[in-house]
Amino acid sequence: MNISSQSRWSLLSSRLPARLWPLVRRTIMDDPFIREYIQDLLTKIRTQVLVKLIQPYSRVRIPFIAAKLNITDTDVESLLVTLILDKRVTGHIDQVNQLLEVGERDDSSKVKYAALGKWSAQLKTINNGVINRLQ
């Protein structure tokens, strides 16, 4: 009889009394090899789950993500910053409202800043013209 590893795990976990889980966890965490790599593994798993979690949304609250991943808001923000800088997620974080806005920023802000730049240059030209006439 061939039992998959997932089936074996579910058999083991269903037969193991709840009071023994802390002992099993402590025993696993006492292993130096596991302890050395567990944080990297957790980060990688959380990152993958995070990417799948935010995929259908255009805006997601950071506390919502934290609750789903069972980690702090600060840890979620750190993961999001890493994902954005690595260009695995396109978006930006609104820290004031604790919100992730997924996708490119709208072009209206780019147009607005370009217009302000032109306006500033024209004001500088007018200012220089007035100063030259006064001299």
Q: Mind explaining what this structure looks like?
A:
- The chain has 135 residues and is mostly helical.
- The protein has 2 domains: 13-104, Arc Repressor Mutant, subunit A, CATH 1.10.10.10; 106-135.
- 69% of the residues lie in helices and 8% in strands.
- The protein contains 6 helices and 3 strands.
- It has helices at residues 5-15, 21-30, 32-54, 62-69, 73-85, 107-134, and strands spanning 59-61, 91-94, 99-102.
- A hairpin with a 4-residue loop joins strand 2 (91-94) and strand 3.
- The longest helix is centred in the last third of the chain and has 28 residues, at 107-134.
- It is elongated, with a radius of gyration of 26 Å.
What gross morphology would you assign?
Answer: elongated
- Distance between the first and last residues' Cα: 100 Å
Question: Which strand order do you get reading across the main beta sheet?
Answer: 1-3-2
> Can you tell me the CATH architecture of the largest domain?
Orthogonal Bundle
Low-confidence stretches: none
Q: What is the average of the pLDDT values? A: 84
- Structural class call reads mainly alpha
Top CATH class of the largest domain: Mainly Alpha
Rg over C-alpha atoms, rounded to the nearest angstrom: 26 Å
Using DSSP, what is the number of strands? Answer: 3
> How many structural domains does the protein architecture include?
2
Question: What is the N-to-C succession of helices and strands?
Answer: HHHEHHEEH
Q: Determine the CATH superfamily of the largest domain.
A: Winged helix-like DNA-binding domain superfamily/Winged helix DNA-binding domain
Protein name: PCI domain-containing protein
InterPro entries: 26S_Proteasome/COP9_Components, PCI_dom, WH_DNA-bd_sf
Domain PCI: 1-107
Pfam families: PCI (PF01399)
